[in-house]
Amino acid sequence: MTQLPNVDSRMIANNLQPYKPTHPGEILKEELDYRGLSQRQLAQTIGVAYSQLNEILNSKRPLTTDIALLLCQALDLEAEPLLKLQMEYNVRTTRENPTFIQRLRSIPRVASIALL
Asked: How far apart are CA 116 and CA 114, in angstroms?
């Protein structure tokens, strides 16, 4: 996080977060559109069910490591940025879940844990 004296860190452009987290499926869907590839064609190429790929591209299913590697092999992309995006999406959506927030707040902080 960027720090500047006398400036609220939330107001620095490098520290801003989008209002809505970005699911990697959104990026992949745009990539397919740009390349003129159909979801069915890609699903067949990488050997997964069309419905599975469609749910990822429509942000209804998480991008798993194995699917990311298959997609990136077929599209000549790097898997790590997409997987990082998925992790950030997971963290943001979980932190915004009211039920989880209640659970999180109910856990006491432990000063130290005895090592066995």
From this structure: 6
d(CA 43, CA 55) in angstroms, rounded, equals 12
Closest CA to 28 of 2, 65, 80, 63: 63
pTM of the model: 0.76
Taking only the tens place, the pLDDT of each residue in 52-102 is 999 999 999 999 999 999 999 999 999 999 999 999 999 999 998 999 999
Q: Write phi, then psi, for 53 (nearest 5 degrees).
A: -65, -40
Where do we find the tokens 């699911």? 23
Length of the chain: 116
Nearest to 23 by CA among 72, 86, 67: 86
DSSP 79: H
Contact 95, 81 (CB under 8 A): no
Q: What gap in Å lies between CA 52 and CA 69, rounded to an integer?
A: 15
